[in-house]
C-alpha cells in the first residue's frame, strides 16, 4: 500500500513529538524576544569572554579598559586644549574627560555592534539561536567596560573640585538610557552591514564625523551662541543630549546646566531607537548567515 502524503507527515503531529521548524527561521516577535531573554546568561558570558580575550595577551590586561580612554583624553586635551586653546570651555579637563569617555562607549558599541553578525558568520551558520544575542552581547561588553570608565570619570571630576551631590545618582538612569540607545543603534547597523558589506568601510568615517560635530572637545552652546538655528538642531542630536546631560549632572557650573527637556528627548530617542532596532533586526532573522 502506498503511503499518502498526510500519513508521511503524521508522526510530526503525534503526542510527544515537536513539529519540525526551520533552522534560522523567524519566529513571532514576542517568541523571539523570549528566546533572547532565555539566553541572557549566554549573552553575559559572551560579553565577559570577549573582554578577557581582548586583553589577555597584554601585560596590563584589563587596565587597558581605562587606560585607552584616558590616553585619548590626554591626546585630545593636548591638541585642542593647548595647541588650539582659543575658545575652549571652562573646566576643560573635566569637560573633555566626560565627552571622550561617553563617546568611547557610543563609538565602540556602534562599530563593534555593526560587525557582530558579519564577523561571526561561522557561528551563525552552525548554531540555531536568536541572532539578536550577538549585537546585544557586544553592547553589553562595552557597558561592562564603561562602568570602570564611569568610576574614573567621577573621580577626575571630583578631583578638580566639583562637589559630590545627590544629583550624581542621575548617572545611573542616564547610563541605562545610553545603553538602550546604543543597543538599538547596534541592531540597526548590524542588519545593514549584513545587506551591504561596504558599509563596514564607512564606519570609521561615521564615528569620526560624529566625534568632531557633537561637542566632544568644544561647547556647541558657546561656539554657536549667536546662531539659534544651529543650537536648535544640536538640541535634537541624541549624542549631544547625552553629553550635555552628563556634564550638567557632574559639573557644578551653571554654564553646563542641561535643559530639563533633554531628559525627555534622550528618553524618546533611547526607547524609539531600541524599538526600531529590535523590529528592524528581527525582520531579517532568516537572512543572517546566508552566503547569497
What does this structure look like?
- With 292 residues, the chain is mainly α.
- It has helices spanning 5-9, 29-38, 40-55, 64-83, 92-114, 121-126, 133-159, 171-195, 199-213, 220-223, 228-234, 238-250, 261-282.
Annotation keywords:
single chain, 292 residues, mainly alpha, 66% helix, globular, disordered N terminus
- Topology pattern, helix = H, strand = E: HHHHHHHHHHHHH
- The pLDDT mean sits at 81
Q: Give the overall form.
A: globular
Q: How many helical elements? A: 13
Low-pLDDT segments, ≥5 res: 1-23
* Content-based structural category: mainly alpha
Q: What is the fold's blueprint, element by element?
A:
Layout lengths: L4 H5 L19 H10 L1 H16 L8 H20 L8 H23 L6 H6 L6 H27 L11 H25 L3 H15 L6 H4 L4 H7 L3 H13 L10 H22 L10
Helix pairs in contact: 3-7, 4-5, 5-7, 5-8, 5-9, 5-12, 7-8, 8-13, 12-13
Quick recap:
66% of the residues lie in helices and 0% in strands.
Amino acid at each position: 500500500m502506498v503511503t499518502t502524503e498526510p500519513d508521511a507527515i503524521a508522526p510530526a503531529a503525534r503526542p510527544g513529538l515537536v513539529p519540525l521548524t526551520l533552522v534560522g527561521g523567524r519566529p513571532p516577535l514576542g517568541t523571539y524576544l523570549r528566546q533572547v531573554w532565555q539566553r541572557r546568561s549566554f549573552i553575559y558570558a559572551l560579553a565577559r569572554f570577549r573582554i578577557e580575550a581582548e586583553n589577555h595577551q597584554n601585560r596590563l590586561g584589563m587596565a587597558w579598559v581605562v587606560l585607552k580612554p584616558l590616553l585619548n583624553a590626554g591626546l585630545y586635551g593636548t591638541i585642542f586644549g593647548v595647541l588650539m586653546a582659543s575658545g575652549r570651555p571652562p573646566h576643560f579637563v573635566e569637560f573633555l574627560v566626560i565627552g571622550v569617555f561617553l563617546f568611547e562607549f557610543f563609538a565602540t558599541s556602534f562599530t563593534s555592534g555593526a560587525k557582530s553578525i558579519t564577523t561571526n558568520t561561522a557561528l551563525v551558520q552552525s548554531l540555531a539561536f536568536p541572532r539578536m544575542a550577538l549585537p546585544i552581547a557586544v553592547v553589553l561588553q562595552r557597558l561592562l567596560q564603561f562602568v570602570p570608565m564611569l568610576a574614573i570619570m567621577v573621580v577626575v571630576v571630583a578631583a578638580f573640585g566639583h562637589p559630590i551631590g545627590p544629583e550624581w545618582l542621575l548617572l545611573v538612569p542616564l547610563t541605562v538610557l545610553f545603553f538602550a540607545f546604543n543597543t538599538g543603534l547596534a541592531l540597526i547597523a548590524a542588519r545593514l552591514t549584513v545587506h551591504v558589506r561596504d558599509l563596514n568601510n564607512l564606519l570609521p568615517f561615521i564615528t569620526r564625523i560624529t566625534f568632531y560635530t557633537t561637542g566632544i572637545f568644544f561647547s556647541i552652546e558657546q561656539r554657536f551662541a549667536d546662531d539659534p538655528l544651529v543650537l536648535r538642531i544640536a538640541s535634537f542630536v541624541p549624542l549631544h543630549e547625552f553629553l550635555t546631560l552628563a556634564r550638567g549632572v557632574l559639573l557644578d557650573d551653571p554654564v553646563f546646566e542641561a535643559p530639563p527637556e533633554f531628559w525627555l528627548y534622550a528618553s524618546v530617542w533611547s526607547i524609539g531607537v531600541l524599538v526600531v532596532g529590535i523590529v528592524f533586526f528581527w525582520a531579517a532573522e532568516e537572512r543572517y548567515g546566508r552566503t547569497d
